[in-house]
Write a structure and sequence with these properties.
Helix 1 packs antiparallel against helix 2 and helix 1 runs parallel beside helix 3. The longest helix has 16 residues. The termini are far apart. The chain is of the alpha+beta class. The strands form two sheets. Strands 3-4-6-7 form a four-stranded antiparallel beta sheet, covered by helices on one side. Strands 1-5-2 form a three-stranded antiparallel beta sheet, with no helix packed on it. About 40% of the residues lie in helices and about 25% in strands. The mean pLDDT is about 90.
């Protein structure tokens, strides 16, 4: 598919790791890694292969939970009533211990408007998205931010957005004066996509 072939050393490492995968979800994970690498050689490093090979069943389940909250490299921490200390605090600690999440307990992400007249932005979360409208040209969100490895690994996990989480985030943004719409997100090649409006919060 790509102009240059997959590195033979990488392919050998992939074969060794994938051959040990027994469960279907683990096999699917390794298949996604290979598809990415064939499409664009260099997508996943040998370090990533070694990390994936070390994952346990409970690790993958934690990654699946985190993937449902991924908003493009971060998890918005301003979601009143959603996060539970006994569930999410251990999850975030595990992600930090694995090197998938930044060390900072509280980080931030600044979203910039795609319009020069007012604030307009789309925040994607798997198969869903939030469409924000309001005043100003940017907005800063408190977040739990993924590391570079974390973004790569989470991107391999198939997941559907957690709608309860999205509504919690949308409610918090609405209290800040933004108009929020929640809709379906149809991803396209190259990282773009289409937003289909469904509901105004």
């Amino acid at each position: 598919i790509a102009e240059r072939p997959v590195d033979p050393d990488w392919l050998l490492r992939w074969q060794e790791a994938a051959a040990r995968a027994v469960a279907e979800d683990f096999q699917n994970l390794w298949a996604r890694v290979l598809v990415d690498e064939v499409r664009q050689p260099g997508s996943h490093s040998l370090r990533t292969l070694a990390f994936l090979a070390s994952l346990s069943r409970s690790d993958v389940e934690a990654l699946m939970l985190a993937a449902r909250l991924d908003m493009g490299g971060f998890i918005c921490s301003d979601a009143p009533g959603y996060f539970h200390a006994d569930i999410h605090a251990p999850l975030f600690d595990l992600l930090r211990d694995m090197g998938l999440m930044q060390d900072e307990r509280k980080g931030s992400v600044t979203l910039r408007s795609v319009s020069r007249a007012d604030f307009r932005a789309v925040v994607r979360c798997q198969n869903k998205a939030l469409f924000l409208r309001g005043e100003g040209l940017q907005v800063t969100l408190p977040v739990h931010q993924f590391s570079r490895l974390g973004r790569e690994v989470i991107g391999l996990i198939p997941a559907m957005a957690d709608t309860a989480y999205l509504f919690a985030v949308a409610t918090a943004l609405k209290k800040r004066g933004f108009q929020i719409e929640i809709g379906d997100w149809f991803g396209q090649d190259g990282g773009g996509g289409l937003f289909s409006e469904q509901m105004t919060v």
